[in-house]
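Supplementary Methods S3. Complex input for the thymidine-5'-diphosphate-bound model.
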Amino acid sequence: MKNIMVTGGAGFIGSAFVRRMVQKYPDFRIVVFDKMTYAGNLDNLLPVKDSSNFAFVQGDIADREVVRGALEQYGIDTVVNFAAETHVDRSILSPDAFIFSNVVGVHILLESALKHKIERFVHVSTDEVYGDVEEGFSVETDPFAPNSPYAASKAGGDLMVRAYHITHGMNTVVTRGSNTYGPYHYPEKLIPFFVTEALDDRPLPVYGDGKQVRDWLHVEDHAGGVETVLMKGVAGEAYNVAGENLQYNIDVTHRILKLLGKPESLIKHVPDREGHDRRYAMNCDKLRALGWQRDYNFDSGLEATVGWYKANEWWWRKIKTGEYLEYYKQQYAARLAAVQG
Ligand code: TYD
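Predicted complex, serialized as C-alpha cells:
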C-alpha cells in the first residue's frame, strides 16, 4: 500500500486524517481529492501542503473522468472516502446535494475503484445511519433507521459499499463515527458554531429543550480510528468509532460559555429541528479489539478546542461571510425572531 487517495481530504475529519498520515507515514503518498465545496478548505492542509508525500487534486467523486484521471495519474491502490455533504440542517433545507454526493458520488467512486482494481476501499460513514437510539448502544449489525435526508443518504452510501463487497468481492471496510469536534471544524456545527458566536456575544440557538444526547469524539481519535480500520479492519466489516462520552446539548453549551467566561443569557431555546433525533450512542468494542484507543477526554479536549478557536480567528472569521451568512439567515433568522419577540 503506497498511494492513498483521500477523498474529502480538505474537510474537517478528512484533513485531520491527512495531516496524521502524511506525517506518520513518509513512505506513503497521500493524494487529497476534494471538490472544494463550502466546507472544503485548503487552510486545513497548510501543515502538510509542502510535504513531498502530499498531493492535491480538485475534483468531484461523482465525476467519473476526473476520478479516473486521479487514480491513474497517481497509481492509486487505496481509497479512503471522507467526501460527503454532512450538515443535517442543510439536508432539510436543500437535500439534492446530499443524494448527489453521498449516494451517487459513492456509487461512482466504487465503480471507478472496481475498474481500477483498487486494493482497499475505506468508507467513512456515521452513527446517524442507526437513527434515534432511545436506550442502549448501537452495534455494527443493528438495522439502519435513518431519520434525516442526510442520514438516509449516508445509509445509502454505506449499503452500496456493502454491496460491492458482496457482489464483487471488493476489499471494503466501513467506519461509523460519532459526533466529532476539534480544530478546523466548519462553524455551522454545534460546537464551533456556539464557540465562535459566543466569542462575539451573539445568541446561541439551542434547538428545543437541549436535552438531545450526542456522543462526542475528538477529531484526532476519529482519524486514529479510521487509520486502525484501514490497517487492520476485516474486509466486508463495519466498525463503530465512538467517543463513549454522552452529553446533553445544553450541558455542552454551558461548558462552552464557562470556558469562554460568557453569560448564560446568550442561550436562546429556539423551535426544534424537524425530525430531531434525541439520542445517538454506539458500542465500539469491535474497533477496540483491533487495538484502537482514544487519546483525548472531553474536559481537556473541549478546553483545547475552545482555545484553538480563540487563537485562530484568522481561520474562521473569513468563513463567516458570504454564503455562510445566507445559510445563517435561512436557518436561524425566523427561529431567533420567534423567541425574541
Ligand atoms: P450538529 O453539530 O448539527 O450535529 P448532528 O446533527 O449531526 O448531531 O448538532 C449537534 C446537536 O446540537 C444536535 O442535537 C442539534 C443541536 N444543535 C442545536 O441545538 N443548535 C444548533 O444551532 C446546532 C447547529 C445544533
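The pocket of thymidine-5'-diphosphate is lined by residues 88, 179, 189-190, 193, 205-207, 212, 214, 249, 273 (CB under 6 Å). The mean pLDDT is 98.
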